User: What shape does this take?
Amino acid sequence: MRPDPPAHGSCHAAWDGAELVIGDGVVERRWRRTGDGLAATSLRSVADGREWLARPSVQAAPTPWLDLPVEQRHWHFHVEKHPAGPVEDARLAAELVASGPTASLAMRFVVYPDCGAVQMTMAVLDGPHDRWTDPTPPTGSARNDRREDSAAASGVETEAPPDAQVPRLDLLELLDWRPPHLRLTQVVLRDRTDLHNELVFENQWLLHPNEHALRLQGNVFVLEDPLTQSGWVFLKLAPLPHARPVPTAFDCFVDERPNLYYEAEPSAQFGPCHARWPLAYRVGFVGHGATGFAAGYSWAMLHFAGGPDGCTGVLHALQRRLRRYESGRDGLFVSNTWGDRNRDARINSEFIGREIDAAARLGVDVVQIDDGWQQGTTANSAEAQARGGVWEGFHRADPQFWKPSESRFPDGLEPLIASARERGLRFGLWFAPDSSDDFANWQRDVDAILSLHRGLGVDYFKIDGVRAESKLAEHRLARFFSDCLAGSQGRIVFDLDVTAQVRPGYFGAVGVGPIFLENRYSDYHRWWPHQTLRNLWKLSRWVDPARLRIELLNPERHAALYAGDPLAPANWPPDALYAIAMAASPLGWFETSGLSGRFIDAVSPLVRTWREHRDAWFGGRITPIGEVPDGTTWTGFLSRSPTGAYAIVFRELSPEPTWPLPTGVPGRPSVLYGEASIEPDRIRIERPLAFALVTWT
Assistant: This one.
């Protein structure tokens, strides 16, 4: 008799030597042992009892990226209940290791109670092992040698084609799907926003036996049964394809061999007992992103119901398990000194004192000094040419690089941080881990961050200058982040800049903190609020908005550059600019001391109101509503939870003064903030480029 499987809440995992079973109360997966691997036999949604596989997989998946030596291997199974970590939720982790004398194959499975997702990782280990380990890639490990050309985003403010050679086909999943009608969606995401502004593309296929082979790149793929509006999401927790040190020609494929021939009719020769019956689409996912003895990227299969909103919900839910939202730590309003393009020319004690005073009047939560607070000089400094600024090799350039500048802050940062605390503000700094020699100085960078955190009480760091071009660099960068988070008990928040170079992107470091999305400057005539709104709206279907740092600038700067433009920043009410950012994690991309009294008076009441409702907003399922923003639509965001709902509604330059409110939301809608009124099932906003914050009670 099989013993009861170890459990953690609704999660369970069991192994009897031939079959692995793992589930989280919403989904359950099964594999059978085949050779030194596992072949999928069941993919089931628990609520409706639906089996999604037409038949067991024809071969093992996942498969390693190495040809393992033929040798006898012994299987070891271990299950452990992990309490909540510094940022991650409590979970159940199962390890299955096929241990051999010269090489071992390890698989790790992670589930969170009632999440609807099973997360997996594979590692190839040198020698015998009975437990999972994450080996350090050797020096000289695989490297992304696709260099950026002179016009590309280097991160210093002044692509190459994918590799043609197809690498070894290292499978993650190989599944024959039961539904005869499936919609496949490929989600193409872009970062390096110094080069790109359109960041999300969705390509769809309604699968058909005549469809030629599909070979698709990406991190997110959706397989949906359009008849039930339910399905599965494949999510690769990795950098975007261009940024991976081990390139993959494709991440998803649909088998080119048709599963039903024209002449084949159900019969004794081709019927229910035939290997090719029923019709089944074979879909595979590939690319561990590893070489040699190493661990690959993690991936997850997530089940959803309820169409696009359900798909968004399960993706956001997993991201919240990898990094849980904490009141008072996440979703805060951060100001940053760089957005007005004075670089570090003004950074000194007197200037930061004025920044703190103005930030407090505006309602900022965290006042952050960008590049220039430190002793060392970077290539972006206003003094870079005179002082030999660098963009990596910081410790080599100056052993005291990450000490506060004595010339700019003769009394240190302590008096300024104390002043900020007295005003109810937290403090943040800019930091760039040293990318040189594959982050060889990562431990020194950990020490520098924890010294600033423990010694000065700095909790918020914008992370810039990252160039993770090798597997060793990826590994060390991950250690940098994890050791900082562990050393601060999760109190440190990193804003991970994805504007340039080779960086973890949207899904390569989910637990780290928000994504610093864009450098947009009105100085260069490159900031339009509706474009910011568009990027947030499109990304919010796939990336939890709490994980996106979204900017508003000072609209009174460089207004002449936008003369005659109906969508000029100055044409938007100032509080509407904040309303765009507050749907995510707001960034004041300006010098607060340069804001006019008019701007502060217009925005600060909304900031105060938003602070009262911020946790409730982030406590709900956030989905985009209305049309894709393009400057002429009605659009916005809806947050729905069991206890209530909110909407942030924008009227762009639409000629229509009213718009239908989302349906199916329980309660009576009312305007919480904004010049708007509620009509039966509709909202009226008289002024174009304005907004309203609506609540249902």
Notes: The first helix runs from residue 307 to 322. Residues 148 and 692 are 43 Å apart (CA to CA). The two ends are 53 Å apart (CA to CA). DSSP finds eleven helices and 36 strands in the chain.
